[in-house]
Amino acid sequence: MTRSRSVVALMALVLAAGAVPVAAQVPPSELARSVDIPFEEFTLDNGLRVVVHTDRKAPVVAVQAWYNVGSKDEPRGRTGFAHLFEHIGLFNPTENLPGGLMEPLRAMGATDWNGTTWYDRTNFFQTVPTSALDQALYMESDRMGAPAGRTQSGAAR
């Protein structure tokens, strides 16, 4: 048999046999249980829960701050407050960053910064070079504890 006839015969055999076998469907819940992402978790004296996963593939760090407040906390019949407060936290100045966080984030080389709101949480996130981690944490702390117009006690000026 010539080589071209062998290839044609092999192709016909594969097609007749049903081509490539299809893997069995695995339920997403089973797939999720098979994922193992190692992390450390601890709580600071002030109650802040910290979760750290180390991945040294790139010289960047992702910083996220999650607040356990969302649309579930809005008064019945009055919606949009959680999203409004997300935007206030994202775009407004803080006590120590009177111009807001956007320019300092750009200056440090941050990428992918934003905030989101859902039923049970509001979060803010950014990806920064590892050399900017301290500054990013300081900015999150300032957003969390010293929004513009508030004193350290939380009372309006």
What would you say this structure looks like, in words?
With 157 residues, the protein is of the alpha+beta class. It is built from 5 helices and 5 strands, in the order H-H-E-E-E-H-H-E-E-H. The strands form 2 sheets. It has a 3-stranded antiparallel beta sheet with strand order 3-5-4, with helices on one face. The chain has a two-stranded antiparallel sheet with strand order 1-2. It is globular. The model has no long low-confidence stretch (mean pLDDT 84).
A few lines on this structure:
This protein has 157 residues and is an alpha+beta fold. It is 32% helix and 20% strand.
Q: Average the pLDDT over all residues and give the rounded result.
A: 84
Order of helices and strands: HHEEEHHEEH
Number of helices: 5
Residue share in β-strands: 15-25%
Global morphology: globular
Q: End-to-end span in angstroms? A: 92 Å
Strand count, sense and closure of the main sheet? 3 strands, antiparallel
Question: How large is the radius of gyration?
Answer: 25 Å
Low-confidence stretches: none
Query: How do the strands line up in the largest sheet?
Result: 3-5-4
Helix-residue proportion? 25-40%
Topology:
Blueprint: H1 3-16, H2 28-34, E1 40-43, E2 49-52, E3 60-67, H3 81-91, H4 102-107, E4 111-117, E5 122-129, H5 133-145
Antiparallel strand pairs: 1-2, 3-5, 4-5
